[in-house]
């Protein structure tokens, strides 16, 4: 039905589908996903009070909630995310350009970054001041309270959301790794120690000690899903439990949702993270925007995403001409934030685990003892729960204001690398309940050893290289193995390293490598005989 609707709208508006649309074939198994499996199932009806048809735009986006997000008849807006200040105000940092610009939407290369302010999270937002030139802004707050607004090729920084703003440029250290599709459309997540993890447009992962100091690359390949797609506009964030990453296939108009415990190793959940048609009014009416891009999220005090912001346009970008009826804006869509969960089993859960106890935490706006439909719950690996399988609830009891639910362990599907099993179900009003649970035996702040490219001493027949710990905890004694051309070149031991500490190693080589072999090295780390990291280094 969704595919038919998209195609019908395309024919109705005369869109050139080959220009900016390719219908991606969904995996057959996605037809069996239950509600709550897809990230887009968390999107809720839009908020707003002014519904109007007397506005620009194709019939597909009229009437619409004009007090949702930000729009002006004379300005095309794009991108942007929101920060909140202690006075309760919401600050949207968004870019835009005059609607009557000679190139229409393609004038985006000359974007201006605006600071807009609103009293409500969903808007409306009104421009407060102009910050400077730049496109695809993303704002974040440093540990010392300063505000950074990333734009393509640079950033603005100020003591607070109200400026004054100073322009600067980030510095990047690729660390002898191929930069995955350039350094644009960057997205940032603050780590617990105040450092920052960054994902670039191509899916490379980088880390900076304070958000401004050089970003150092950890990956040698994209962390995006291994599927066909023209990927851009990643958004990464971290909550109290894990990292989240959504990336958009702009040509296929489908986005993918991923999760990670360390920001480096990711799993991809089934189903669309978002796609056209997700902007729905409380009465079910849909604002059918042609494109939804530049997703950003607003987070609560625990880091959970409670609102999605999208840049939307009502037609193909290059058909948005000056002084016509087409344009773009920023919209706000509330998100189901999920419930707080923790597994109480102390021992590692396996296929043989008889029962699993899960604590559902009470919150100001949520009473699990009164609100949860226990019989509806399923729990376990997302690969099971997303299809309506997983563990069934067998009993529950109260502890303080919380609810403890005991599940039959059969069919939990949890593998040794599971770090956040999933719960799906409903409350007693039939509304979606979901959440991810912490596991008491999982290290959520693992060490992350990473090697720089080694130097080879032909006369001494030895490698010298530096290893750095980018994790948030000290590493255990580890083994390092260096391979060249598929053959083991050298190996050695690494003493424990504190976070951000480095070790300079000199390793005797087992053979004299050729220049070709030295140009393509693989460095693997092992702890207690288990592989904990792998780097592929090229020059």
What does this structure look like?
The protein has 539 residues and is mainly beta. Helices cover 5% and strands 41% of the residues. It is built from 5 helices and 37 strands. The strands form 9 sheets. A 7-stranded mixed β-barrel has the order 23-24-27-26-25-28-29. It has a 5-stranded mixed beta sheet with strand order 11-15-14-13-12, with no helix packed on it. β28 and β29 form a beta hairpin. It is globular, with a radius of gyration of 25 Å.
The helix tally amounts to: 5
Rg from Cα: 25 Å
Number of strands: 37
Principal-axes geometry comes out as: globular
What is the averaged pLDDT score? 94
* Most strands sheet: 7 strands, mixed, barrel
Q: Fraction of residues in helices?
A: under 10%
Strand order of the largest sheet: 23-24-27-26-25-28-29
Q: Structural class of the secondary elements? A: mainly beta
List the helices and strands and how they pair.
Layout: H1 2-13, H2 17-20, E1 51-52, E2 64-65, E3 75-84, E4 90-98, E5 112-118, E6 126-133, E7 138-141, E8 147-151, E9 154-158, E10 166-168, E11 172-173, E12 187-190, E13 196-199, E14 205-208, E15 215-217, E16 231-238, E17 243-249, E18 254-260, E19 267-268, E20 291-299, E21 305-313, E22 328-334, E23 341-343, E24 355-360, H3 368-371, E25 372-380, H4 382-385, E26 391-399, E27 402-408, E28 422-427, E29 432-438, E30 449-451, E31 455-457, E32 462-469, E33 478-484, E34 487-494, E35 502-508, H5 515-518, E36 520-527, E37 530-538
Parallel strand pairs: 11-15, 23-29
Antiparallel strand pairs: 1-2, 3-4, 4-5, 5-6, 7-8, 8-9, 9-10, 12-13, 13-14, 14-15, 16-17, 17-18, 18-19, 20-21, 21-22, 23-24, 24-27, 25-26, 25-28, 26-27, 28-29, 30-32, 31-32, 32-35, 33-34, 33-36, 36-37
């Amino acid at each position: 039905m969704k595919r038919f609707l998209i195609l019908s709208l395309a024919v109705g508006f005369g869109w050139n589908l080959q220009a900016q649309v390719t219908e991606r074939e969904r995996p057959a198994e996605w037809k069996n996903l239950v509600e709550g499996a897809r990230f887009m199932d968390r999107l809720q009806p839009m908020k707003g009070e002014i519904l109007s048809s007397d506005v620009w735009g194709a019939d597909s986006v009229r009437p619409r909630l004009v007090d949702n997000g930000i729009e002006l008849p004379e300005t095309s807006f794009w991108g942007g995310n929101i920060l909140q200040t202690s006075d309760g105000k919401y600050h949207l940092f968004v870019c835009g350009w005059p609607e009557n610009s000679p190139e229409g939407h393609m004038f985006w290369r000359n974007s201006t970054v605006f600071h807009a302010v609103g009293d409500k999270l969903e808007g409306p937002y009104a421009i407060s001041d102009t910050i400077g030139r730049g496109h695809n802004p993303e704002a974040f707050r440093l540990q010392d309270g300063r505000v950074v607004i990333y734009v393509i090729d640079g950033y603005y920084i100020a003591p607070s959301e109200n400026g004054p703003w100073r322009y600067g440029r980030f510095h990047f250290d690729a660390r002898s790794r191929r930069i995955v599709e350039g350094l644009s459309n960057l997205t940032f997540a603050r780590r617990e120690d105040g450092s920052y993890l960054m994902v670039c447009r191509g899916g490379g992962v980088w880390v900076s000690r304070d958000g401004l100091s050089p970003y150092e690359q950890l990956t040698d390949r994209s962390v995006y899903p291994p599927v066909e797609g023209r990927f851009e506009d990643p958004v990464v964030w971290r909550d109290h439990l894990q990292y989240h990453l959504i990336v958009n296939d702009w040509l296929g108009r489908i986005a993918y949702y991923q999760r990670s415990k360390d920001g480096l190793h990711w799993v991809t959940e089934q189903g669309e993270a978002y796609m056209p048609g997700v902007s729905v009014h409380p009465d079910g009416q849909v604002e059918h925007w042609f494109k939804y891009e530049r997703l950003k999220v607003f987070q609560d005090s625990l880091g959970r995403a409670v609102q999605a912001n999208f840049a939307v346009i009502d037609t193909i970008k290059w058909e948005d001409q000056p002084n016509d009826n087409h344009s773009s804006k920023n919209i706000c869509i509330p998100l189901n934030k999920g419930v707080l969960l923790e597994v109480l089993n102390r021992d590692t859960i396996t296929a043989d685990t008889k029962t699993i106890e899960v604590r559902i935490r009470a919150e100001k706006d949520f009473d699990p003892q009164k609100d949860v439909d226990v019989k509806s719950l399923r729990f376990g690996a997302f690969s099971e729960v997303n299809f309506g399988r997983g563990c069934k609830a067998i009993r529950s009891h109260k502890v303080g204001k919380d609810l403890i639910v005991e599940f039959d362990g059969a069919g939990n599907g949890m593998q040794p690398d599971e770090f956040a099993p999933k719960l799906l179900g409903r409350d007693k009003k039939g509304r979606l309940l979901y959440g991810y649970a912490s596991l008491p035996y999982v290290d959520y702040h693992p060490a992350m050893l990473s090697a720089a490219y080694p130097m080879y001493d032909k006369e001494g027949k030895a490698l010298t290289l530096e290893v750095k710990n980018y994790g948030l905890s000290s590493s255990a004694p580890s083994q390092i193995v260096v391979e060249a051309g598929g053959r083991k070149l050298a190996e050695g031991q690494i003493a424990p390293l504190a976070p951000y500490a480095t070790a300079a190693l000199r390793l005797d080589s087992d053979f004299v490598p050729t220049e070709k072999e030295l140009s393509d090295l693989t460095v693997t780390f092992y702890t207690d005989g288990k592989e904990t990291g792998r780097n592929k280094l090229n020059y």
